[in-house]
User: Which sequence fits this backbone?
């Protein structure tokens, strides 16, 4: 079927207003939130904007009949190239599937469509004393579907867990165009724990069309401490000591001086401009516990060399402190036209030495690198500042990135804490996973998507899936993983 006939068929399913196909309109879908130095951009044949799960199923059936690639997309804020249509085909964007369908406070659950914006769900239930705990810094824009596909985290995931801990059940459309429900409404459901497979699957095995999510009761009291240090070393040591003391704050975030230089003039959050690093520590719970824990944390920070500890208990004060952190990436435009944000994880005890290594890489490659990150769970976000129009700077960013990622892996870290692999880190997968590991992952992909039509070229090392399909024809592998060739 040619492009025109395809557009006609899509319009028949969705109506003309829900099919984007002009070259100019498609340009905005060539990207996600990643910098294009780190990912390859690409243009789909069409972007469709379904409003129901049945429409999604009909589009997937059409694409499957035509052998076309399909790429699920939420708000496009992803940072690893996941929603970019590497092989063209059809992008299914869920932004018009944005209804909160059911809220059940007695059972602390909500049924939502995948295009619901993360923060809008919390805003909807906050007046009744609940919130949706996963809170990526992009929560004003990103969708719950995107959060599920990336298993997103955020500052409050230190205490409350990442997205997978808040998903009970999913309605999905599998690559054959069939609608299924997996998981349930409660803690346990019968059968395989398939939602564990789907959360974090980066749009490679189908598309989520509804989600049953857990709502978390709002704590009685919240306190946020702003603690400032002369350097990142002492702030890192304070983080290690807080966690080693068995304290689990609701959030434990660090920002270094370069970040403060961008954020403070932009948002006037009250961060001291001369601090080497600041920690934002949020403690929540019952009043008495919060007061005791806050005192304990302040004492640990002072011992680690904190110059001052300021507690914000009023909501407006807390919101301002958080605004600085959550808008930190946006503020980086004041320092340079482009940034490349990393997402590696290191053991918490290696924070100080890793930040020293980031400093060394910054000097070696002559690149400013800012750090703002989820310190409590060791999830680093070194942010390299450059100008993507400058070829030499782009080359240095890529070289520095490679060095940084290898270092983090060598000391026992992980490739990604929350942004996913996508195309950005697919070629690093072999640093962490053996051939057998990758074959097992490819086996899961193959079990759901034997035609490899969903989100091709993502997650697996470049060229790997073609090799893997051949490898799967090998009887030994097929027997080992119980997967049979197409
Ligand atoms: C300024 C900024 C700050 C950020 N901060 C954080 C942070 O603190 N924590 C964090 O984890 N991430 C963060 N991110 C990354 C990003 O916002 C998250 O990964 C987010 O969950 C992506 O959601 P999205 O709706 O934009 O998805 P998209 O970018 O559109 O898609 C992301 C992936 O999900 C897949 N997908 C989307 N919808 C579906 C669906 N319904 N079914 C199946 N697959 C689907 C896509 O194919 C793609 O692979 C940040 C990004 C930016 C730009």
Assistant:
């Amino acid at each position: 079927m040619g492009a025109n006939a395809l557009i006609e068929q899509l319009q028949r399913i969705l109506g003309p207003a829900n099919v984007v196909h002009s070259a100019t309109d498609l340009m905005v879908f060539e990207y996600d939130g990643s910098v294009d130095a780190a990912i390859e951009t690409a243009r789909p044949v069409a972007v469709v904007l379904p409003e129901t799960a049945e429409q999604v199923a009909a589009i997937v059936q059409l694409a499957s009949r035509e052998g076309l690639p399909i790429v699920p997309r939420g708000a496009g804020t992803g940072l690893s190239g996941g929603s970019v249509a590497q092989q063209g085909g059809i992008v299914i964007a869920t932004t018009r599937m944005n209804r909160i369908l059911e809220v059940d406070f007695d059972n602390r659950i909500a049924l939502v469509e995948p295009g619901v914006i993360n923060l809008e769900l919390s805003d909807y239930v906050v007046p009744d004393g609940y919130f949706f705990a996963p809170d990526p810094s992009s929560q004003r824009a990103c969708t719950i579907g995107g959060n599920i596909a990336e298993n997103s985290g955020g500052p409050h995931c230190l205490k409350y867990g990442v997205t997978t801990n808040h998903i009970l059940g999913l309605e999905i459309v599998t690559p054959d165009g069939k609608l299924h429900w997996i998981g349930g409404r409660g803690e346990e459901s019968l059968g395989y724990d398939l939602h564990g497979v789907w959360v974090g699957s980066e749009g490679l095995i189908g598309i989520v069309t509804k989600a049953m999510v857990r709502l978390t009761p709002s704590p009685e009291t919240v306190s946020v401490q702003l603690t400032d240090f002369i350097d990142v070393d002492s702030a890192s040591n304070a983080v290690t000591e807080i966690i080693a003391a068995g304290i689990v704050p609701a959030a434990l975030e660090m920002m270094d001086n370069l970040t403060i230089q961008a954020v403070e003039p932009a948002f006037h959050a009250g961060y001291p401009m001369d601090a080497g690093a600041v920690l934002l520590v949020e403690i929540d719970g019952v009043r008495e516990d919060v007061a005791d824990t806050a005192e304990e944390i302040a004492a640990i920070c002072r011992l680690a060399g904190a110059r001052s500890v300021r507690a914000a208990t009023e909501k407006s004060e807390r919101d301002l402190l958080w605004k600085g952190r959550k808008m930190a990436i946006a503020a980086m435009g004041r320092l340079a036209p482009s940034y490349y944000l990393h997402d590696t994880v290191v053991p918490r005890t290696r924070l100080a030495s890793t930040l020293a290594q980031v400093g060394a890489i910054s000097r070696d490659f002559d690149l400013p690198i800012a750090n703002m990150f989820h310190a409590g769970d060791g999830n680093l976000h070194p942010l390299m500042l450059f100008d993507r129009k400058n070829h030499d700077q782009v080359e240095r960013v890529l070289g520095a990135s490679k060095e940084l990622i290898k270092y983090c892996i060598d000391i026992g870290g992980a490739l990604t804490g929350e942004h996913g692999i996508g195309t950005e880190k697919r070629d690093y997968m072999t640093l962490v996973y053996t051939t057998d590991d990758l074959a097992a992952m490819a086996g899961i992909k193959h079990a759901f998507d034997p035609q490899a039509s969903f989100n091709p070229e993502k997650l697996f090392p470049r060229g790997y899936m073609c090799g893997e399909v051949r490898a799967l024809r090998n009887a030994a592998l097929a027997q080992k993983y119980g997967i049979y060739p197409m």
Observations:
- The radius of gyration is 23 Å.
- The chain has four domains: 3-93, 100-217, 219-334, 433-481.
- Residues 32-33, 71-79, 82-83, 94, 114, 136-138, 142-143, 145-147, 149-150, 152-154, 202-203, 207-208, 329, 418-419, 455 surround flavin-adenine dinucleotide (CB under 6 Å).
